[in-house]
């Protein structure tokens, strides 16, 4: 027997056969089972959180729509976008929140690929409608207070055009993934669906960048510019009528409220926007699935605190809410309709608080008031209910 490596008749032995490498494991199918790398209790925690957020959002936003429908004095043009915001948040929680609760409870997206596409589209669509509703609300407040077009006031047709713009513009930028420009796919954790941030395709990247600009940067810019101009207008009026010490209190309250609105917007949507850009720029980045689910969760929580910021902190709405659940309707009705003791309450009851404020601010470029008029306006401005209701629009 010849030793290994010794030639026989001048010919070398063939090398020993290498053992074949085992085949790579098949990729995880998010529609067939949960991720093995995530402990089951993590999904249960997410399910509990989504149930809590969805229940609060559905209750709050339904109450906003119910009270607005119940009381005619709340159905003013400036309040249309408020109701639209509540409707969008309600639908966002009804589609995305409840589905996310069920899928997290099961641990994976067991509803199938078509349900994933529909859920991804619905959540994105209603979320963008809510975002642009906030931007249109800021513009309408600027329009009412600053009066950029002089005597032209916000009317029903203007408010209706704002609603048409919000729903149409949002649809334009959320339907392309359904039609083939990018796509809706399962998230890293496998229990929700979202735009495909993880693709290496140039076409997908162009959609994500365009989507980021039109549905985050642009509405944020509208909100910042409009509220900045609104605060400057109120500050200018406060300086003009500054002989009374309490005229600066409304301005401070308005400024704080604007800061709260902008911070709330940023807290809800900035993590999701940053996450989408980071993942689009580095699609191979290795992120823990639990960490990747945090931005989407923050975005869905906005449906809970939007009603608190934009509606429930409003005095007129609170009075209507008390009347809705009160056994003695006459007392609250009397408070809503009083017209003799406080001059500002008539306008507030009939046209809304923002319109009452706007009625006391002189139009830019108009005739300068006389000394008597200035004194009258000053005393009236000091009686404005801004400090109590923080200029919420109803």
Notes on the protein architecture:
One of its GO terms (biological process) is visual perception. This is G-protein coupled receptors family 1 profile domain-containing protein. There is one protein chain. This protein is mainly alpha-helical and 394 residues long. It has 2 domains: 40-308, Rhodopsin 7-helix transmembrane proteins (Rhopdopsin 7-helix transmembrane proteins), CATH 1.20.1070.10; 314-358, no CATH class. It is built from 15 helices and 2 strands. A two-stranded antiparallel ribbon has the order 1-2. Strand 1 (184-186) and strand 2 form a beta hairpin. Helix 2 (77-106) runs parallel beside helix 4 and helix 10 packs antiparallel against helix 11 (329-337). The radius of gyration is 29 Å and the shape is elongated. The chain starts with 39 loop residues before the first helix and ends in a 5-residue tail after the last helix. The model is unreliable at 329-351 and 364-394 (pLDDT under 50).
